[in-house]
Amino acid sequence: MKRGGIVRRDEDGFGKKGSGIFDGFDKGSFNKDGFDVIAERWAEMRAKMPVSRLVELFASALKPGGAVLDVGCGSGCPEAKYLSERGFQVTGIDVSDKMVREAVKNNIVNARFIVCDFFDFAPEEKYDGIVAVDSFFYFPLEKQPEVYARLANLAKPGCYVLFTHGNKENEGLDHMFGEPFVSSALDKETVLGLLRREGFRVELSIDDYDEEAWVRKWVVFARKG
Ligand SMILES: C[S@@+](CC[C@H](N)C(=O)[O-])C[C@H]1O[C@@H](n2cnc3c(N)ncnc32)[C@H](O)[C@@H]1O
Fold first, then answer.
1. CATH number of 29's domain
2. Of ligand 1's atoms, which has the minimum distance to the CA of residue 42?
3. What is the CA(74)–ligand 1 centre distance, in A?
4. pLDDT exceeds 90 at position 190
5. Residue 74: CB within 6 Å of ligand 1?
6. 129 is a domain residue
7. 11 confidence band (pLDDT: 50, 70, 90)
8. Residue 160's pLDDT is what?
């Protein structure tokens, strides 16, 4: 189906797992195309936004100069930019080549940006920190359970992970800059169980995090044992 082809949505924009709304639909490439479409406007908006205090906390936990992965880095602002300015060696990956183009335009030092789907990313390098701000929502629901084993594979022992997440299982449509995106989440208990299984200890789990312009349903800060 082409972008613009989605016409169905339920009342609050979210369907239940197995509702059939997205049967036979390539959610990954649908979202990639959408992020390509909005990349310039996203970059302009994010360039004006401050970094969250949680990203500052994440940075202060990391060893100086450590290697940090930004999953779904978008335009690299503000997270990758902030982390590189703090002296970390930042790798940003994003499935949208247009988003990565915006990140490269931002001339961020100590950082490299790679066009890659998180589910295909298999570097030799392991990371001291992994940050994912608002990217896990845009992974297809059926791929959500794989996320934590993949994070564990990318993590050095002691690696800190910071990510935002929905607070209940869902799959549905949301809109940014008028474009539709398929968003999804597992329920919290499932995510916490997967983190535990992969050897992560949750250090902070914050519901309804509200920091000025930075409002998120659930934020997790965890550490690999
Ligand atoms: C809402 S944006 C957030 C961007 C950035 N983290 C920020 O805070 O501005 C979500 C990003 O995740 C990326 N993304 C979605 N699915 C992805 C995947 N499977 N692999 C890598 N990046 C993905 C999108 O292309 C998009 O740039």
1. 3.40.50.150
2. 9
3. 5
4. yes
5. yes
6. yes
7. very low
8. 98
